[in-house]
Amino acid sequence: MRQMDQEQRLDYIVDALKTDSVLYRDMEVRPGDRRRVMRSLMNIRMPKPLPAGFLEIQDEFLREEAREKGILGLEDIPDVQEQYGSSIPFGDRISIWQGDITRLQVDAIVNAANSRMLGCFVPCHGCIDNAIHSAAGLGLREACRRYMDEKRREEPDYEEPVGRAVLTPGFCLPCKYVIHTVGPVVGMRLTEELRQDLRNCYYSCMAAAAERGIRSIAFCCISTGEFHFPNDEAAGIAVDTAAEFLEQRQTAFDRIIFNVFKDVDRKLYEGLLS
After folding, report:
1. Which part of the chain has CATH 3.40.220.10?
2. Of 5, 93, 123, 138, which is most buried with the most CB atoms under 10 A?
3. SS3 at position 107
4. Which CATH topology does 71-273 take?
5. Which is nearest to 147 in space by CA: 105, 184, 179, 108?
């Protein structure tokens, strides 16, 4: 296959996704809209076989895009002991970092998934599930489909339960793995059962990571967005569960990163950890 630059790769991906779509095959795309259209067509595409050669070009494009965004390793993210002078237990192994979780070159990042486990199908939606699937590429949705197909052979109506952890490769992300967990949805009121469900999410992710030999893990703020878990209580549960896990298994992780996007979450975690 001939070498392409990023513009040529983008043109190829958009054309391939349009050709693959019944509804949008004849859509005209303005040059300035190509990146947004690519993400939108990726987001809405149901898992099915991909055109020959597509993944190779998609992966080249997304990996180069990740490099352009800037990849951050553990050496770029201070722990709370270093950053805030924190004296909390395990402060040399816990970090707060505000920004795009898809830039992190850690062993695993955590995705707040939904029970269908196929990613977000709303074009360019702002949820973490959409961001991770968009940056990882369509290989991630295909891996999730295979997982769900296997589960539905035994249980046709299977939906992923709240509080468990499912590992997939990171595909085009800088991380090695994505750990998917379905968080609790808060309706009219927050109950103790929902609090326990969120604890289970954090604990299951750490247990699954430790079992796989994963040494660094970055958590998003599970359930605080579309699932409406109160930010302050969610932060407290996340920190307490991580501390409990490290107390039980002190050598399990080199680093646990609490990745936040909003200022309100950064301030909450700083209040708990600094």
Report:
1. 71-273
2. 138
3. coil
4. Leucine Aminopeptidase, subunit E; domain 1 (3.40.220)
5. 179
